[in-house]
Description:
Blueprint: H1 23-56, E1 59-60, E2 68-69, H2 73-80, H3 82-114, H4 120-128, H5 135-145, H6 152-159, H7 171-182, H8 187-198, H9 202-210, H10 215-226, H11 228-243, H12 247-253, H13 257-262, H14 271-281, H15 285-310
Helix pairs in contact: 1-15, 2-15, 3-7, 3-8, 3-11, 3-14, 4-8, 5-12, 11-15, 14-15
Amino acid sequence: MATTVSAPAPSAPAPGRRRRPSLARREARWAWLFLAPWIVGFLVFQAGPMIASAWLSLTEYDVINPPEYTGLDNYRELMADPQVARALGNTVYYTALHVPLVMVISLGLALLLKRVGRLQGFFRTVFYLPVMTPAVAVGILFLLLLNTQDGLINRGLALVGIDGPSWTTDPHWVMPGIVLMSLWSLGSTVIIYLAALQNVPRDLYEAASIDGAGGWARFRHVTLPMISGALFFTLIVNTIASLQMFTEVYTMYFGNRETQNRFNSDAATFYVIHLFQEAFQFLHMGYASAMAWLLFLIIMVITLVQVKLSNRFVYYEGEDK
């Protein structure tokens, strides 16, 4: 008589013994653990204040009394406030002057640095050091340099027979003086362009030379397309930074009451400076919050337009056009 042998039943895990988590789960836990400080910081110092400011923009709030809901009144007042329009106009004017100048001058300096050779590291450091200068110190320094009577810039112009303008009092020269000051910190853009130039393959230049391309043709058809990604990045970064210009100009023109009375502060009123005054000088926190969200929307729209237009001139290696 044949006997059948049944397969042994799988043994159940011993009581109290847990299955070890898989490698993917352990890696996910460690990832969340290392990300936790950033997540907490983002929620507490960025997302939280943004949500709070969005709510405050719909209220009338002076810090002392509780917020009073007013709906969209702050935004309606923004649209009709001539001071907001003037500050925004000054900011856009500065951005339109600053961004192209920084990009063109930085590219020219990067092209020169590429040809320096062994001294490239030294000059690269020299160009970048001004970026490390505190913004308040830069404002004070250029307030002295742009002084009409004793400023070093006007003294240098006098040596070549040019009567220097009133950089800080003439409304027509206030903004050019601020743009001149802003060129002090273009070192970071120079370094970015230099890195991009050094990554352009030499084979492309050699092929262009064989085809009879001159210096300008090589720059236009080889250099610019190959560094267009860096150009696009600095365009966005410098535009956003220009629209948020604050510290240096505030130090120069709004640092104390004596400075405000002596210099033409109206021509130097930037949007963020006006926002700061509304919030911390006049305690119009709700109105200032609405101003902050308007600036956020302006920056977002400009950035989206730049990204959309970038498809026409930005080349990415390995991308088929």
